[in-house]
Specification:
Elements (H helix, E strand, L loop, with lengths): L4 E7 L6 H15 L3 E8 L5 H7 L6 E6 L5 H10 L5 E4 L11 H10 L4 E5 L13 H18 L11 E4 H8 L9 H11 L4 E5 L12 H20 L10 E2 L11 E7 L2 E6 L5 E3 L2 E2 L1 H5 L24 H12 L10 E5 L5 H5 L6 E6 L2 H4 L7 E4 L12 E7 L8 H11 E12 L4 H6 L13 E2 L2 H10 L2 E14 H8 L4 H13 L6 E15 L1
Parallel strand pairs: 1-2, 1-4, 2-3, 5-7, 13-14, 13-16, 14-15, 16-17
Antiparallel strand pairs: 4-6, 5-6, 8-12, 9-10, 10-11, 11-18, 17-20, 19-20
Bound molecules: zinc ion.
The site of zinc ion has 8 residues, from loops.
């Protein structure tokens, strides 16, 4: 007998066809394997698709997952894959156009290890496609396979066949890097499988009737072509690489919901937006150990500042001082007994700027090399925010400048901030703003899409929610700025365009930009909040 199978069926307004599909599919699956489940993912249907699916009773149990909104086939299949319980996972279409006996050789190959991914193919000699498989689709299919071959190197003529099966661990790993909600997820998954070196094998399928009935040829073709180029860009930036660190699929760290839409991907990391609360977070999320290992001695002297850490941090000391003085104006009335803690203190510049206001200045920094360079009139503690002993209820102000976005659990982090603050103490934080014009302007090249260091990115709304749920009263929230030299500014604005960025930066320097400092919005938010 073949191993157990979870078969995912995405369905959008399928209440008419679904009973017949489920009857046919469950009969076929029951013949193939002793234990199986059908997972119907109702993709935000406006008809009674989910009731029809829930009412169905047949030889194989049916689980129904329901999305509140119509998200696309990729999002639906992905959700089904995430919740699959059996060691093999497959998916097929709600109109059931395939003879499911094709699954038998697919599952055998997966079980024996001859394949990690088994895909149905409509173009093998043994494949049978009937007249219903229209001429236009055949032609556009060939043009399309040529495009996917030329643009993303997929060696398959038919990447879009709606019958595929995987080992569950492989499927979950591949879908965890998906950035496309619509039909393009099919070739994106295959591109990911190929990039990660998995064995993808093709199997002939037999069509029992016309398929792809829900595809609108023109509009969907345009979208698919656009998606091909998105996958090409992602491939080039290594978005589908296998990670060397431990990372796990995770629910939203702010609200706990699991529904998301992909937002950005690079170097094997993917950032998603929670559809319930709007938080952007890394999913899969690297383990705490993997994150801790990032902040070694090289972090503040990086060769590739836009990938990791900061370049030439010390050179910019004067700019930082000026910037921090500006931010500290927000806590002038919160000085109290004069104790401040700066978390993620770097070289201690915020504390340098805080000398006039605060008599007792504590720095917490994970990088020992950076901590070595903090001025000796501050108290330096080396360690992580979660794991270091600090006096409770002690500080008038706890500051995090470009640090909150590095912390994977906002609730834990804010609970700890509250624990360290005296009652009525103030939290001063600056963190990137996904609602900022800079993010919109720079799109996928936004400098704050820096993975895996930035694990959660906030907007005014999500930051407020995090603070309020942790028992803070938000006093003030503003879009943050920073003092910069013109040459630095030029390279930042053109981040992602290396040659242009370097040229603009050089030109700005020639024009005296290295001596001229201006205050510019930085695409971040600065907030102050009181521990109530
Ligand atoms: Zn959320």
């Amino acid at each position: 007998m073949l191993p157990r199978l979870s078969l995912v069926i995405p369905a959008y307004n399928e209440s008419q066809r679904l009973p017949e599909t489920l009857a046919k599919t469950s009969r076929a699956i029951a013949d193939i394997t002793s234990e199986a489940e059908l997972i119907v993912v109702d993709d935000g249907s406006t008809d009674d698709t989910h009731q029809v699916a829930e009412r169905f009773a047949g030889p194989v149990p049916v689980r129904v997952l329901r999305s509140a909104e119509n998200r696309g086939k990729g999002a639906s299949v992905s959700r089904g894959v995430r919740e699959a319980r059996h060691p093999l996972v497959g998916f097929t279409d709600a109109d059931s156009p395939y003879d499911l006996s094709a699954l038998v050789p697919m599952m055998r190959a997966l079980e024996s290890g001859e394949a990690d991914v088994a895909i149905g193919a409509r173009d093998l000699p043994e494949s049978q496609i009937n007249r219903g498989y229209g001429f236009v689709r055949l032609v556009s299919g060939k043009a399309f396979s040529l495009l996917t071959w030329a643009a993303i190197g997929l060696p398959f003529r038919d990447s879009q066949c709606g019958l595929k099966a995987f080992r569950r661990d492989v499927a979950q790993q591949l879908f965890a890097l998906r950035t496309i909600d619509g039909f393009g997820f099919d070739f994106e998954t295959l591109a990911t499988a190929v990039a990660q070196g998995y064995r993808v094998e093709r199997f002939p399928v037999r069509l029992t009737h016309d398929d792809d009935s829900r595809i609108q040829i023109f509009a969907d073709s345009l979208q698919m072509a656009a998606d091909v180029f998105r996958v090409r860009r992602n491939l080039r930036r290594g978005a589908y690489e296998k990670l060397s660190v431990v990372a796990e699929a995770a629910p939203c760290p702010l609200c706990g919901e699991e529904d998301f839409t992909p937002r950005a991907a690079n170097h094997g990391y993917r950032m998603v937006e929670c559809l319930a609360c709007g938080l952007w977070y890394l999913n899969p999320m690297p383990s705490t150990e993997a994150l801790a290992a990032l902040y070694g001695s090289e972090y503040y002297e990086s060769d590739s500042p836009l990938q990791a850490g900061y370049a030439d941090y010390e050179h910019m000391a004067d700019d930082f001082l000026e910037t921090f003085r500006h931010r500290l104006r927000l806590v002038r009335d919160a000085v109290g007994t004069g104790r401040i803690l700066d978390v993620g203190a770097g070289f201690g510049y915020l504390l340098d700027a805080a000398r006039e206001l605060f008599s007792e200045r504590w720095a917490l920094e994970m990088s020992a090399a950076a901590a070595d360079r903090i001025a000796s009139d501050h108290r330096v503690v080396v360690g992580s925010f979660a794991g270091t002993d600090l006096p409770a209820g002690y500080f008038d102000v706890v500051s995090m400048q470009d640090c909150f976005e590095h912390l994977p659990d906002p609730h834990l982090a804010l609970e700890r901030v509250r624990y360290l603050l005296r009652p009525g103490g103030t939290f001063l934080a600056t963190t990137p703003d996904v609602g900022s014009w800079l993010r919109r302007l720079q799109g996928r090249n936004w400098v704050s899409l820096k993975f895996p260091e930035h694990v959660a990115l906030y907007s005014e709304r999500t930051l407020r929610r995090a603070l309020e749920s942790a028992g803070f009263r938000v006093d003030h929230i503003e879009s943050a700025g920073q003092y910069v030299r013109l040459d630095f500014l030029a390279s930042r604005i053109l981040s992602g365009y290396d040659t242009a960025g370097t040229a603009a930066s050089t030109m700005a320097r020639r024009l005296g930009g290295a001596h001229r400092r201006i205050y510019v919005p930085s695409g971040s938010l600065t907030i102050t909040a009181t521990a109530e």
